[in-house]
TrEMBL record:
Organism: Salix purpurea (Purple osier willow)
A molecular function GO annotation: DNA binding
Subcellular location: Nucleus
Name under which the protein is recorded: TF-B3 domain-containing protein
Stretches that traverse the bilayer: none
Amino acid sequence: MENITKKLNITDVERRLLLPENCLEDLRSDLESYLKFKDEEGRVWTFRCRASPGGRSKPAFYGDWFSFVREKGLGVGDVVVIISDKEKNIAAGGCFKIKIKKPASKHYQNE
């Protein structure tokens, strides 16, 4: 699996994290599953991943996703990166890694 990078929009922050269609088979095999993610501090989060039948909808994260957003102070424009650790077998209880990238703040000087 390649890394999944997503710039957050208002839906991602307030309702659910929508992911690209092509990552569906890399993340899960059922229409609904619970996936574990380890953040940069080593904390493990469990996100509920859901998709509509037929495989045409984008998978979405719910559950702990909202706690993650609040605790990390995520907002529109922030970026999350999901990394699969190929050394671990995800189906056997391994974790994905999740990283946050905040956009650089722009400082303006009055001259």
